[in-house]
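User: Quick one: structure for sequence A, then sequence B.

Assistant: Sequence A:
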Amino acid sequence: MANTPPTWRFAEAIETCVKRIRVVDGYLTDIGQMVVREVAQQDEADLPDTYATVVLSEIMPANQPAVVRTHVDAQVSVVVMLRHGHAPDAQYRMHCAIADVQQCIRNAQRDFPQSFQFPRFVSARLLPPVEGMAWAGVEVRFAAHVPLHVITH
């Protein structure tokens, strides 16, 4: 893409970080084995036991005086879905997912464009399984001030 909206670049950088989450690399889960950007119905047979979706959650005016005219405060959610949401260890697995997502962002300054604020943790919440569903999940939300203008590659 020649011109990329800054909010897309922010979500893209978060996605890059989440894709690194693998047990072999010292994490508690393998969330990184499948990370998608589009919220669409997935064929359940094709899904691993844990996967993540990275989505833009909210855009608000910048809240720091120095950037109020040049940036917006964008929030991106990492929604991690876990199969067998009713299993005895489901709560533990959800806590592991939250810890992994937070950890993957902590040391990833290099993944974010120069004019972007480094992401700050906003919140995490459990998404309990709905009756009849085999999935539970967590939503971990990050925010950063990102430029208003389109970034040209």
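Sequence B:
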Amino acid sequence: LGWGLVWLQRRFLRRWRWTRWALFLLPLLMFLHVAPQVWSAGLLSRNDPWVVPSISDQKQIADWLNKNTNDSDLVVCHWNIGWLLNCRSADLLQCTAWEGMKTHLFENGLPRERFRYEADILDAKFVVITYIDLIWTLQQPNVRLLIEQKGVPQYRNVFNTPSGMVLQKR
């Protein structure tokens, strides 16, 4: 490999002196290609689907839930809202594990003794569905089945933002 690079250098640098700058031109061309997308906020990264689309929406949902719950209430929501709440919270994966069903992160099940409090979705005062739940959580094993078995699609929408909705039993 070393002899090959020396041979290439001798062969091309003698004929075309500009080739010594070729290594620097490639990153410059890549930068010039991507820079307009970055400056116009049009660049999409690989993790964009997993980023909360609006932090203010999440805060609005959390504030509304804190006003309408007390310490003993259970709210089923994604952890990106759950950590802002002043009540008990569980996410849909935990509720699925509570029911004894296998799901992502709980492939071997999880005994009920491991829970601090019951994570039964039927005991929840509110169920929050956000953008991340639609694109990821509901696609995990047994989560959609749990929601259908427990009748969550019949819950009524009591509060919503562009990136999430709060549901309550009728």
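The first helix runs from residue 2 to 15. The first strand starts at residue 74 and ends at 76.

User: Thanks, that's what I needed.
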